[in-house]
Every structure is written in C-alpha cells, then in structure tokens.
C-alpha cells in the first residue's frame, strides 16, 4: 500500500510571509510609509482572540503597521459600523478585517458591506465576490486563495481537473469554487443536502473539504490518486485519553491510503490563511498607492 504525501502548509506559509516581508520593504522604500492592517475583534471568543493575536504578531513581523480594536460583545451594530467608517477614512489603513463570527445581535452582512471594498482584505464584500465571480481583479478570500496556492504548488496546471468542494459557505466553499473555475477545473459543490455524497466526492481529482464536521469525508470516498485539501478545524475530545485536539473534515488516517497528497490539520490550510491576509494587505496597499501589483505574490 502506498501512502500519500502530506502537504506542508506551515512551511509554504512561512515562505509566503517571507516574500510579503520583502515586498513590504520595497513598498516602504517607494512610499515612505508602512502598509497598515486594522483588525476588529468583537467579544472574547477564545479561538478568535488567538487568531487576532497571531494576525497582529505576524503583521508586525512582516514589517507592517498593526492596529487592533477590541470591542465588548455588547457593542451595538451602529457603533461597530461607525468604527468601520472611521477606518475606511483613515489614510494609514490599507486593510480592514472584522473577525468572524460576530455576536448574534450584529448583522454580519451589514458590517462587511460597510467596509470599503478596496480595503476589504478578507474579500468578503459583495463587490469583491462579484468581481471574483465575473473573472475580474478582486480581493480574494484568504483561506480559498491559500488552498489554490497549495494546489498549484502540488499539481501545477489544474486545467480540466474534476474538483469537488464539500461545503457552500460564503467564506470558503463559494469563493473556492469560483477560484477552481478560474483555473479551468470542472467544479461541483456538494453540501448537507447532496444525495450520495460519497459517489460525488469519488469523481474528484481535487477534493476541498470545508463543512465544519469532524472527519466527515471518509477514506473510501476518495478516488485513488486524488489531492485533498482539508479546510476543517474541529475541536474534539479524544475518547481514549480524554484530551482535546483539533481534527479536519477529512478522516486523514484513512484517506492517506488513497490520496496522492493531502493537507494535515493542524499545519495545512490554517497557517495559509494569515499568510494570505498579509499578502492581500500588501496588494491593497499597492493599489491605494497607485502602484502596480507586487510581483511573485
Ligand atoms: N474575518 C475573518 N474571520 C475568520 C476567518 C477569516 O479568514 N477572516 N477565518 C477563520 C479563522 N482564522 C482566521 O481568522 C484562522 C483559522 C485557523 C488558523 C490556523 O492557523 N489554524 C491552525 C490551528 C489552530 C488551532 O490549533 O486552533 C492550523 O490549522 O494549523 C488561522 C486563522 C474564521 N474567522
Ligand atoms: Mg450574526
């Protein structure tokens, strides 16, 4: 039995962050200012707090300005929208990111819709999803763009390949399918209502699992030689030792016997999200400064 390759997203992300840092140096030399990223956290969700802290640290490590705004969970939507408007108008801010999820009393779509699309480094604004869907230059959501980078690094040209995206979220599933389409893949989106999902997944040369259900995609669903990108981050308690750990949406141990290559959880797609966020911030800073897109990113 052959065992598939484990794709090292952590190493790839580190290399990308190094390239961004080089690009930041060149940007500062040209403009005399640092690119700036504003991150807004509402409430104290532990996982979100960790992600925001890591974003701040990595922004600074790449040579950019990091601005963090921590607001209580009780904040009203109007107040949050006012902060977004202030950041839209702030010349030092090239990128604005509002950490998701937001508390239930706040309408996520209104908040995202208030961000200046040119500063929308998450690529969640409808202007950016529309630009992406129509094949125009857009700010592209970080996690799916990171997945495409890993896929192209592993497979080269993706043209003509059969891709199945499991999950239809606005953050991952939908933009992922658009990006695969732009690479000339034949794309299917599977979801919770898909009939015989095992046979749908079995068609795929590329499987992207982004459903948020621990180890839902089984090894035998995978066509031999397929490449699997596991976007899931699910915290589970081990039945044997009672310890908490994170697993993906794919049963990785089983899948390894079928795949050509697979991203692990942790250490696969996750680290790419923040690396691409830094890349998007640098791209936004170039556009706002009237400079051409940085090369090689
Ligand atoms: N505004 C946004 N909100 C959220 C996004 C986003 O892109 N924009 N994505 C996720 C959370 N996220 C970044 O915000 C994120 C998730 C996971 C990782 C990561 O490095 N994961 C590690 C494991 C981490 C762990 O042990 O828990 C890995 O997979 O190796 C980075 C960023 C939702 N919200
Ligand atoms: Mg909400």
Can you describe this structure?
It catalyses: (6R)-5,10-methylene-5,6,7,8-tetrahydrofolate + NADP(+) = (6R)-5,10-methenyltetrahydrofolate + NADPH; (6R)-5,10-methenyltetrahydrofolate + H2O = (6R)-10-formyltetrahydrofolate + H(+). GO terms for molecular function: methenyltetrahydrofolate cyclohydrolase activity; methylenetetrahydrofolate dehydrogenase (NADP+) activity. This protein has helices spanning 9-31, 46-61, 77-89, 108-114, 126-133, 142-155, 173-182, 197-202, 252-255, 270-288, and strands at residues 5-6, 36-42, 65-71, 95-98, 162-166, 186-190, 206-209, 227-230, 234-237, 244-247, 261-262. It has a six-stranded parallel β-sheet with strand order 1-11-8-7-5-6. The chain has two domains: 30-117, Leucine Dehydrogenase, chain A, domain 1 (Rossmann fold); 142-270, 3-Layer(aba) Sandwich (Rossmann fold), CATH 3.40.50. Helix 2 (46-61) links the parallel strand 2 and strand 3. Helix content is 40%, strand content 16%. The radius of gyration is 19 Å and the shape is globular. The chain binds ligand LMY7XDAE and magnesium ion. Magnesium ion binds next to loops.
Tell me the count of domains: 2
Given as residue ranges, the uncertain stretches (5+ residues, pLDDT < 50) are none
**Named CATH topology of the largest domain:** Rossmann fold
Mean pLDDT: 97
CATH fourth-tier homologous superfamily of the largest domain: NAD(P)-binding Rossmann-like Domain
Q: Given the helix and strand composition, which structural class is it?
A: alpha/beta
| Second rung of CATH, namely the architecture of the largest domain | 3-Layer(aba) Sandwich
Task: State the helix count.
Answer: 10
Give the tally of β-strands. 11
Which H/E pattern describes the elements?
EHEHEHEHHHEHEHEEEEHEH
Ends apart, CA distance between termini: 38 Å
> Bound small molecules, which ones?
the ligand Nc1nc2c(c(=O)[nH]1)N[C@@H](CN(C=O)c1ccc(C(=O)N[C@@H](CCC(=O)O)C(=O)O)cc1)CN2, magnesium ion
């Amino acid at each position: 039995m052959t065992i598939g390759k484990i794709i090292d997203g952590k190493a790839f992300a580190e290399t990308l962050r190094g390239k961004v840092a080089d690009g930041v140096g060149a940007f500062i030399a040209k403009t005399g200012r640092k690119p700036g990223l504003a991150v807004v956290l509402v409430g104290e969700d532990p996982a979100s707090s960790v992600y925001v802290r890591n974003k701040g640290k990595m922004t600074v490590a790449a040579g950019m300005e990091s601005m963090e705004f921590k607001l209580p969970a009780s904040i009203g939507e109007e107040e949050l929208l006012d902060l977004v408007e202030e950041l839209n108008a702030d010349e030092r801010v090239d990128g604005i990111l509002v950490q998701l999820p937001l508390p239930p009393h706040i309408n996520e779509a209104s908040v995202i819709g208030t961000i200046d699309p040119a500063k929308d480094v998450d690529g969640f604004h409808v202007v950016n999803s529309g630009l992406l869907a129509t094949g125009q230059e857009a700010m592209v959501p970080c996690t799916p763009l990171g997945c495409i980078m890993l896929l192209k690094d592993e497979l080269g040209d993706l043209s003509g390949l059969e891709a199945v995206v499991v999950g239809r979220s606005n953050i991952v599933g939908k933009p992922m399918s658009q990006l695969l389409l732009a690479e000339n893949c034949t794309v299917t989106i599977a979801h919770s209502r898909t009939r015989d999902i095992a046979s749908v997944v079995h068609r795929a040369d590329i499987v992207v699992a982004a459903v948020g259900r621990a180890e839902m995609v089984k090894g035998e669903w995978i066509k031999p030689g397929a490449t699997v990108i596991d976007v899931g981050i699910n915290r589970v308690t081990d039945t044997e030792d009672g310890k908490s750990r994170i697993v993906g949406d794919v049963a990785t141990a089983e899948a390894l016997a079928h795949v050509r290559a697979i991203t692990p959880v942790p250490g696969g797609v996750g680290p790419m999200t923040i690396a691409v966020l830094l890349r998007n911030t640098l791209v936004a800073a170039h556009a706002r400064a009237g400079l051409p897109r940085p090369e090689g990113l």
